[in-house]
């Protein structure tokens, strides 16, 4: 089974790779709605 990459998550959530990284590292700069899409 392949583990999804940060690029896969970004594409599925329709956000940038940088946004996925920010969510995963608990940084600011995104809405709660975006956080839910990423997670």
UniProtKB/TrEMBL annotation:
InterPro entries with a match to the protein in the record: HTH_LacI (IPR000843), Lambda_DNA-bd_dom_sf (IPR010982)
Residue intervals of the HTH lacI-type domain: 4-39
SMART domains associated with the record: HTH_LACI
Protein name: LacI family transcriptional regulator
Organism: Paenibacillus macquariensis
């Amino acid at each position: 089974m392949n583990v999804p990459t940060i690029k896969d998550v970004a594409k599925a959530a329709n956000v940038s790779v940088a946004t996925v990284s920010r969510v995963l590292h608990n940084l600011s700069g995104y809405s709660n709605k975006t956080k839910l899409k990423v997670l």
